[in-house]
Task: inverse folding
């Protein structure tokens, strides 16, 4: 298969001052931030649960998941709901920016280490460097 002919779509979002992107195929929706109900005994990355149109969704703090400083004000934050085969959960982000189409040849894969388990690569974009992630790999944080 010709790698240069493949284009991938990503949804870009901000955490702290960094620009991240998630494959759009795994994003169910983006909603405004609403404080989730706390869950006693949950992992520290879990903010709680939220009822989204009759479905209870676990909400994870994107700052803790990706190890970035959290803002004091959550008023403009969004929850990106990601959907995998057996997992659906929300990730709190500072803002959602845009849908980005990236040709495969501009994506630089990263070598995986324990520090970068969610990172799948980087790509140059008009707004700077995009850190490409797969939030579904963070499903262990909600269990």
Result:
């Amino acid at each position: 298969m010709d790698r240069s002919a493949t284009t991938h779509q990503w949804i870009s979002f901000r955490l702290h001052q960094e620009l991240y992107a998630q494959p759009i195929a795994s994003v169910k929706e983006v909603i405004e931030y609403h404080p989730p109900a706390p869950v006693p005994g949950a992992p520290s990355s879990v903010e709680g649960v939220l009822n989204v149109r009759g479905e209870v969704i676990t909400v994870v703090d994107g700052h803790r998941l990706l190890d970035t400083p959290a803002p004091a004000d959550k008023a403009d934050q969004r929850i990106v709901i990601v959907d995998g085969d057996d997992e659906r959960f929300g990730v709190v982000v500072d803002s959602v920016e845009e849908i980005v189409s990236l040709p495969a040849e501009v994506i630089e894969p990263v070598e995986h280490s324990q520090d970068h388990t969610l990172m799948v690569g980087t790509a140059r974009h008009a707004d700077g460097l995009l850190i490409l992630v797969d939030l579904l790999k963070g499903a262990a944080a909600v269990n």
